[in-house]
Specification:
alpha/beta; globular; binds adenosine-5'-triphosphate; about 20% strand; 2 domains; 4-stranded antiparallel sheet; Rossmann fold
């Protein structure tokens, strides 16, 4: 599995409205969640990790190599991103062409491009919509299509910016299963999310960003046990904790199952 190292990374927008400043951070787990308030710098970090923005100082190393030294195709094979808003990355006339376009950025063989596109569309459940215009799909389907464009390229590291936002229940279930399949097959999945129930239930590694810096790295249980931090950075703890709290129990619970395990003998 890949590792991402950030060393003395700084970036400031030209307007000087916001600065990101990461001393030393290391993502080495298969599934990593990055959380934090609006404007904390999460999407800016993703733009740096994909080369859409260039840091003013510091280095991003992926598997020990300076990311900025890689050729464009090597970058695409190392890191793929799905944006918060799928409409920012969909522009082809059909669903199939959309995915094929992505694969064509990293290879030339037409048959392989088509095969990979169809496999990725099947994986997200859009294989019956290949001829449709992406803008005729629902928002959930457009989000899954943007995921398919990355699955078809199959980079080592998948970055997802708010993947669960606006997804219907079935699509959430499907995407969560894909996350685990990716992690189990040696990929790294790094996701920005505001969905703390999902973080608590599915992730082992969570990083908190505050004002352009990392303020916490650890397990969801450690994060949600730190009530002062959770309140300071405006995170909503898992809903099961609010339910337990209303019953006079202020312990940390990550899911209904977790609550059940800890309370079934009482
Ligand atoms: N292109 C830009 N030019 C100038 N400032 C920007 C630009 N993009 C983002 N910012 C500012 O940088 C700060 C960090 O934005 P960023 O989108 O990285 O935060 P975020 O943590 O991803 O927020 P959210 O959770 O709302 O997506 C914000 O104050 C934002 O207004």
């Amino acid at each position: 599995m890949s590792t991402i190292e950030l060393n003395h990374l700084t970036f400031t927008y030209p307007e000087r409205s916001f600065s990101l400043d990461v001393e030393d951070e290391h993502f080495a787990d298969p599934m990593v969640a990055i959380v934090g308030q609006n404007g904390a710098g999460k999407s800016t970090l993703f733009k740096l990790l994909t080369g859409l923005l260039t840091p003013q100082t510091g280095v991003i190393k992926i598997d020990g190599e300076d990311f900025n030294d890689l050729k464009p195709v090597e970058k695409l094979l190392k890191v793929g991103i799905t944006f918060q808003n799928p409409d920012d990355q969909l522009f082809n006339p059909t669903v199939q062409q959309e995915v094929e376009w992505s694969v064509a950025q990293v290879m030339d063989d037409h048959d392989t491009i088509t095969r990979r596109a169809l496999e990725a569309l099947k994986r997200v459940g859009l294989d019956d919509k290949t001829a449709e215009n992406p803008y005729d799909l629902s928002l959930s389907e457009r989000k899954l299509l943007s995921v398919a464009t990355v699955l078809a390229v199959d980079p080592a590291i998948y970055l997802f910016d708010e993947p669960m936002m606006s997804l219907d229940w079935e699509s959430r279930r499907k995407l969560t299963a894909i996350f685990h399949q990716l992690a189990d097959s040696g990929h790294q999945v790094v996701t920005i999310t505001h969905d703390m129930d999902w973080v608590a239930a599915e992730f082992e590694s969570v990083y908190v960003m505050e004002h352009g810096k990392f303020g916490f790295a650890g397990s969801p249980r450690d994060l949600f046990s730190d009530h002062e931090l959770v309140q300071r950075v405006g995170l909503l703890p898992p809903r099961i904790m609010a339910v337990a709290e209303s019953l006079g129990d202020s312990r940390t619970y990550l899911s209904v199952n977790d609550y059940w395990q800890k309370n079934r003998d009482i």
